[in-house]
Known about the structure:
Oligomer: single chain
Number of strands: 13
Bound molecules: alpha-D-glucopyranose
Amino acid sequence: MSFKIAYLDHTQEMSGGEIYLLNLLKFLDKDQFSPVVILPCSGSLEIYLKELGIPVSIISASQRAIQLGKHQGMGNILSEMKSILSLAFTIGKIVRYLKREKVSLVHTNSIKANFYGSLAAKLAGKPVIWQLHDILTADFFSSFFGRLLTIWANFFDNVIICNSNATKKAFIECGGRTNKAIKIHNGIDISRFNIKNHRRSAFKKELCLPKDAPLVGHIGRLAPWKGQHLFIEAASRILVDLPKTNFVLVGEALFGDIDLNYRKSLQTLIAKLGLKNKVRLVGFRKDIPNIIAALDIVVHSSVAPEPFGLVIAEAMAMGKPIVAARAGGIPEIVQDGIMGLLFEPGNSSALAEAILAILKDKERASVMGEAGRQRIERFFTAEGNAKQVENIYSRLLDRK
Length: 400
Ligand code: GLC
């Protein structure tokens, strides 16, 4: 007999949390568990899930419900009230679905889904697991919001899966109960991120770069906290020493005006530093393994602590040395000096020095890359992650 597990996410945009969900569902033992993903509207995530053969159920929520909390100020109290009503209506629909479809357990996969999903699960009498992809520090959330989230978390009979020790620590420091939080590191689909299946030259050819030109890449959605501006500043410094180096920023502005304005500011910075031929912005790409294959170093320059950092693990799986900010979950993945170099967050000169050190020592770069590949295969596979999550499912279901 297999248990039906309902996964809830509030968005269709493919950021890290949604990639995590795809990895988990790809490797979930379908003999034991049959998944269904409940989403508020149609979009990209739904398409990827269907490609994997995972059933999706759209339980429509109005934009109003999804935007709850976005209208600030007294004048918008009416707007918030309407949002709450609309959300209550959606929760009612989810409760009916969970009962009708005899779902055994609910696994919520985003902060908003953690909120409304746990209430729906409780009303339907189902156990719930929260996936926590976010670090509850002042860099991302107000202390009021962090506290509200942990009070909510403590109220339900649930387990909180944190994607790193850093995420777990922040959750507990915010008031979350220690005995609820479990760290399970994210994992990578290593069959997809296998260097043997990709040609190093393909992406370089697309950029019209010579085969032997060094190429350094930053992959991630464009957002101020992801710190792409530091990468551009570092590029300017590196080119003084190694003028043949090229740089690429892969990723798009996904979440609203702040990110869109940040994209513009990056373009302005590139122009101001005279780097138009040296630093390219290529936008969102599906063929990340193909791109990583062409890179000499993969950089991560977040100015706020990165909860996990999937792309770092993906790059390591492909044998690439890493240069990343020493914060959040990153030091749990990359051992400084062994798989790459870590630098002080926010310091673009330190970032430039770290990149230069690796670019100038090819032997060390390849030793680091190999060490990274082995570490991911041992500790950070999606299969391994799915096994650990399945153990939690079994524990909760047995208890029931
Ligand atoms: C979020 C986090 C990121 C993490 C991903 C998957 O996008 O910001 O650090 O890798 O979720 O857990």
